[in-house]
Write the structure tokens for this entry.
Amino acid sequence: MSTVKVACLQMRCGTEVAPNIITALTMIEEAAKRGATLIATPEMTNIVDIRPGLSKGKIVSEAASPALAALRAEAKQRKVWLLIGSLALTLEDDPRKANRSFLIDPDGEIVARYDKINMFDVEVDDGQSYRESRAYRPGDKAVLADTPFGKIGLTICYDLRFPQLYRSLVQAGADILTCPAAFTKVTGEAHWHALLRARAIETGSFVLAPAQGGRHQDGRETYGHAMIVSPWGEIQAEADHAEPTIVTAELDLSEVAKARRKIPSLSSDRPFNPPG
């Protein structure tokens, strides 16, 4: 399959799981009606609540998650590939939670799982302090998934600032990179476009970036601007605001090989000794 129509959802998830999933299902249905066969939701599709302790009881395990079950059923009903940007899930062997992305096939089956590796432990100029590692256990494995339209490398949000992860995914065969996010408004305004375009350019890959956008019920404000970027770094589609919306684009996968032929940096790596 040389072309695929993709959709990235821009959501504004709140502090209750059920309304968030109802919104996601409605948007997935609309994206499918527009002809998208690969649909991506943002990070924390099930809940956005950074207030300490207030999400307790709302977040459950993967096996018990009604959100995951509903999204899998929607993918099957619409006969689409669905990238669930991430769900917050409890773990059996750790008091912390998982920030976990899923790739679902048109039969509703889980093809790949990815736990966010890089934790957002940052003091931001909006006056808020984020310590994701206190609440979430970082993953330790990069994940690549096969699809009929190419291999997809999975990442989440803050991973975007670690180019070595993206390069390793592409060196392993990725044609499409996903970066579902809940970027803060401050960091998004400064770096979102530059980072997404850089990851696409340096790897010669399509980048899909569904996003959270706007002021959430917990007081957090996210940047929005869900985006689809070509292997040459061109923005093929973008939400020009933070309101909930759907952006779509037709990906021509032959552009991946063309971009990598023009700039063959992936085959030009040279070993070197680190400083020190």
Observations:
- The chain has one domain: 3-264.
- The radius of gyration is 18 Å.
